[in-house]
Amino acid sequence: PITVLARVSYCSAMADHRVEDEEAEEHDESAGEEGLQTNDDAQDEYSRGAPRLPWGITKKVLWEAPVAIWEEGRPKAGDQVTIHFVARLQDGPEVQNSRDKDQPFSFMIDQSPREVIVGMDLAAMTMRRTEIAEFKIAPRFAYDDMGSAPLVPPGATMIFEIELLSWETQEDLFGDGLAIKTVVKAGDGETKPMRGQEVILNLKCTDRKGQVLEEHEHLTHKVGDPLFGPLSRAVVTSLLAMYEGERATVAFGRYFAPTSTDRRYAKATLELELEQVFESRDVSATQDKSLIKKVLRKGKGKQFPRDTSKVKLHIEAASDGNAALYGFSGPKTLEFALGNGDVCDALEFAAIQMKAGERAILTCMPPLPQCLELDLGLVNIQAPQAQLTVELLSFESIADPAGLDSKAFLSHVRARKDVAGDLYKRHRHALAAEVYRRIVELSAGRSDLQGEASTEVEKLRPVCQLNQAACMLKLNQFSRTRELCSEVLRVDEGNVKALYRRASASFGLDDYTAALRDLAKVLEQGASNAHARRLVSQVKEAQRQYTKDARKTAARMIGEEVADEDDVSPGQDDADVDLVERPETFRVRVLAKLAALSACLPVEPCARLIGLRARRSNQS
């Protein structure tokens, strides 16, 4: 009787479920026989995240699952559950008891076609493993007005006592029933791999007769690589949903076949274990992926070393990805204080983002100057990349500088500023920029400073921002340079250094108008500024060349030849030269050609372009 369900009853129940699930909160929860569960246990269950049962099903917990296994969660749609149950009529005899034969009953939740009555599906999703509960299920969630002869009469309310023994999490990988993934052992990690990320896995595929089709142990694999041929799609889809340490199986259906003639994988079983997910992070100063840290072994605890912390870093190996780098004098353990430039940038930027005991591979592209380290014999690296295998053995825990008193804090900030200045002079621009950034970040969080310390720190902050901008300019990070200078100019709009460096960054970004605008402000404060005047000449020359190239491109587009000559009339200011301000005849020809072409081009873009030219020239 449990496994028999009339389709009329199923459709009616699900329709009622959808409507009542939306309206449940609007009804009185103290309703009668078909109302929601109203006892304290039910409300506690809902507050713990249990799915809310619809009107027509009530639940009474007879044995609550131990708290220790709550983290396992509850089964969901698609999971295969195993239960013991006792089914009886509300005011009648027992209908079925799985314990009579001491044989648990298994079914898949929300299977299509459905294996059990709707009420059992909904009940199972509210339970935890080992929990025992009693459910009162109204007819529309059981056998409706058709009943199940001869034991269940039409319109009968059922009572089910259910014990949830276990469940297996299952997922239809492709939505066609041909590849069903089952979680055998839940993972203990917190991250799932992403496409392109490296992992270590174990894989075994056996056919329906138990013969091994493919097997790999402790394989380092980049998620998404088609390494496994016909199995690759199933492997990738499975891995993307797995946690570190998870074991799963994929059961292929009888009609699963990568090709019309390859039937080896029909009803085959794929076993997967995700041993490790390599966490990779860009730790470079400019976030340009020139320095990638791949974690081989996670560190202990939650603390990271701070700026100026003394660390002990072991360098195990140095290679180009295949062979050892020429001149490497390791393995060697280096002891140094972070942020002082005692070691190369690769070690500086990696160590401050490592935990004690962490082991990682640093990939530097290009290797110079990031990996230039005399103590390791890495001086003349010819390879396109360098890989350093490192381990942070220990680090000194120091007090957070943010907690220092005013006098000590000011002394610390001054000392770090001096270190950053020395790094800049040594052409260690990336590390200098990072030290300046830390000073700005540290000082911004100290609003409690008083007296001389407060005044001095307020003066030092824009100085450090401008020095950081100078470092970023040296690293060709023009957008970040403009941001830093703009922050200073919001407070001090006439700051000459900020204006000049922002103009230099705009020039690097080919924004000639913005560069000339800032340089004009600089020259207003000092017309004899040689650096500004020189930069103005460079910007105007670049603008003139850009204009000539743009005019030639426009002429080619309309099929006309343009003489290779300078169209700037004598005495005309180069800063005023622009494509739209060319001689009237050329402008009219361009607009006429565009208008003629509009018949065979999309109307809106042409109208926008012609309108834009007309507006900019103010002569249509």
Question: Could you tell me the strand content as a percent range?
Answer: 15-25%
- What is the approximate shape? elongated
Average pLDDT taken over every residue: 84
Q: Distance between termini?
A: 85 Å
Helicity range: 25-40%
Structural class: alpha+beta
Main sheet specs:
6 strands, antiparallel
Taking Cα atoms only, what radius of gyration do you get, to the nearest Å? 36 Å
Total beta-strand segments: 18
Number of helices: 14
Catalogue the unreliable spans.
1-39, 568-582, 613-620
Walkthrough of the structure:
It is a single chain. Helix content is 33%, strand content 21%. With 620 residues, it is of the alpha+beta class. A hairpin with an 8-residue loop joins β13 (280-282) and β14 (291-297).
Give the SSE layout:
Layout: H1 7-23, H2 40-47, E1 57-63, E2 80-89, E3 94-97, E4 105-108, H3 118-124, E5 132-137, E6 158-168, E7 170-172, E8 179-185, E9 198-206, E10 212-222, H4 232-239, E11 247-252, E12 269-277, E13 280-282, E14 291-297, E15 310-319, E16 332-337, H5 345-351, E17 359-364, E18 386-395, H6 406-425, H7 429-444, H8 451-474, H9 478-491, H10 496-508, H11 512-525, H12 530-557, H13 584-597, H14 603-617
Antiparallel strand pairs: 1-5, 2-3, 2-4, 2-6, 5-6, 7-8, 8-11, 9-10, 9-12, 11-12, 13-14, 14-17, 15-16, 15-18, 17-18
Helix pairs in contact: 6-7, 6-8, 7-8, 8-9, 8-10, 9-10, 10-11, 11-12, 13-14
